[in-house]
Design brief:
There is one protein chain. The protein is of the alpha/beta class. Helix content is about 40%, strand content about 10%. The strands form four sheets. A seven-stranded mixed sheet has the order 2-10-9-8-7-3-4, with helices on both faces. It has a three-stranded antiparallel sheet with strand order 11-14-13, covered by helices on one side. The chain has a two-stranded parallel ribbon with strand order 1-12. Helix 4 packs parallel to helix 11 and helix 5 packs across helix 10. It is globular and about 60 Å long. The model has no long low-confidence stretch (mean pLDDT about 95). The structure holds pyridoxal-5'-phosphate (PLP). The site of pyridoxal-5'-phosphate has 15 residues, from helix 5.
């Protein structure tokens, strides 16, 4: 190599960095600086990054029970496409040569058109948009297209599962909207329809956002759409979590029940690359929604991600029904198994859940933050979650734990394995076992589950093929 040797700058006196305000954990940033300082060259610095990625893959990818509700493992083809050449190409605007700023998009147009048409098929929708990198931006696209600053909307508050997307501290707030809570029944864990009718008729929201990060049971979309139609209001469904369940026909179908538009995160139950998608049926929304996407909120839109999204939509068309049904059955089995072992579960009287997630009330075990960290030391990955008894201010230290069945299902597990997972969790929470005592057993349990099913490479899990 002819390049000049790299000499790290060595200041004469050690520089004590001034205390600078950071939102990130100071100790973790400081450790990264030490790592970089110890490197002999930028190439070694790059190696440090690659090594951390490999450590994550070895641990989270192969050893852990990943029960995070917003995660899903992607198929080998989807993962490979994320590294494809087309991801280095610039493509902005709408599909078709005249609509593009750049020439040379012949095959890019093909890929994007296949993606849009596959999404329409997967959701039985007349229109779809594939260009946003995240669902949070999809929600901002909806607010951009369907509201004006100063308008009033209704949405679900965070303690009962609402997402910041639709609250004053997120895109809805950025759009300058006034926000009134959708009344929610904390026991039945669904919208309080009578109270909603009263409040909505009083404030007449232009838009009502439904869908939530914590969703155990369906929403009364049809009844709510009929109420807001009295003054020309509309429902929009934030299906970030439920997108795969909707595609697989295992959750309510928001568009056919009266929602004007559905947004979603393709990286959650849909099990594709992390992306924001929009689907809708009403032709009158096409111009405003697609205009909000381009040129307002997205320019270059990662065609590698779009290609991967298209393949994941094809996977959902082929395998979504069985995959999503198993996800729901596994979540229900997990809820029952945890309750049996002495862990209070939300919605127990309604069968725990109709989605991919269950919520444990872990206040008696130390609270959501403490419990999630303890379980992570046992190689069981979950997340702390607000529950209806919490206030929004308890964000950092909520009382709940959210547990999702998407990844373990795609790895081929069924209801029987949910009992084994509940055993591990109960040993740490209820029996007070040290997480380190359970950690190796979790690794051994996970070891045979390394294949991603419900995709064209591996098809269905063997147990299902035999049926
Ligand atoms: C996760 C989530 C989002 C954000 O999705 P991203 O794709 O991560 O931006 C929006 N709304 C709800 C209800 C969510 O759960």
């Amino acid at each position: 190599m002819a390049s000049a040797p790299y000499k790290p700058a060595t200041p004469a006196t050690p520089v004590v960095p001034p205390a600078q305000p950071e939102v990130h954990d100071a100790a973790t940033l400081s450790l990264a600086r030490q790592t970089l300082d110890a490197c002999q060259s930028p190439a070694e610095m790059a190696q440090a990054v690659v090594a951390a990625v490999k450590r994550n893959e070895a641990w989270r990818g192969r050893q852990c029970l990943n029960l995070l509700a917003p995660e899903a493992p992607t198929s080998p083809t989807v993962r490979a496409l994320l590294a494809s050449e087309v991801g280095t190409r610039a493509a902005e605007g709408h599909i078709g040569p005249v609509n593009r700023w750049f020439a040379g998009t012949r095959h890019i147009d093909e890929i994007e058109a296949l993606c849009v048409e596959l999404l329409k098929q997967a959701f039985h929708a007349r229109y779809a948009d594939h260009r946003l990198v995240a669902s949070m931006i999809g929600n901002l696209a909806v607010y951009t297209a369907m509201t004006q600053p100063g308008d009033l909307i209704m949405s679900l508050p965070q303690p009962i599962g609402g997402h910041s997307s639709n609250r004053p501290d997120g895109p809805a707030g950025v759009r300058g909207l006034h926000i009134v809570d959708v009344p929610f029944d904390p026991v039945e864990l669904t919208v309080d329809l009578d109270l909603f009718a009263k409040v909505a008729r009083l404030v007449q929201p232009k838009l009502v956002a439904l869908g939530a990060s914590m969703t155990l049971f369906p929403f009364p979309i049809r009844a709510m759409a009929d109420i807001v139609a009295e003054w020309g209001g509309r429902i929009y469904f934030d299906g970030a979590h439920q997108l795969g369940l909707v595609a697989g026909g295992q959750f309510q179908a928001p568009l056919s029940e009266g929602a004007a538009v559905m947004t979603g995160s393709a990286g959650k139950t849909f099990s594709g690359p992390q992306s924001g998608i929009l689907v809708w049926d009403d032709p009158a929304l096409t111009e405003p929604l697609t205009h909000a996407v381009f040129p307002v909120l997205a320019a270059t839109h990662q065609v590698n991600r779009v290609a991967a999204l298209a393949v994941s939509a094809a996977e959902m068309i082929a395998f979504g029904r069985q995959y999503m049904a198993q996800i729901v059955q596994n979540a229900q089995a997990l809820g029952a198994a945890l309750a049996q072992r002495g862990i209070p579960m939300l919605g127990a009287h309604k069968g725990y859940t109709t989605t991919h997630q269950v919520i444990a009330d872990v206040r008696q075990f130390g609270g959501g933050l403490e419990v999630a960290q303890r379980l992570a030391r046992a190689n069981i990955i979950t997340n702390k979650n607000l529950i209806p008894d919490d206030s929004a201010e308890q964000w950092d230290h909520p009382g709940g734990l959210r547990i999702g069945s998407t990844e373990v299902t795609r790895l081929g597990m069924g209801q029987a394995e949910m009992g084994a997972i509940a055993d591990f969790i109960a040993r740490v929470l209820v029996e007070g076992a040290a997480p380190e005592q359970v950690a190796d057993e979790v690794i051994a349990f996970r070891e045979p589950y390394q294949t991603i099913y419900y995709c064209f490479e591996a098809g269905l899990p063997h147990a299902m093929q035999a049926q």
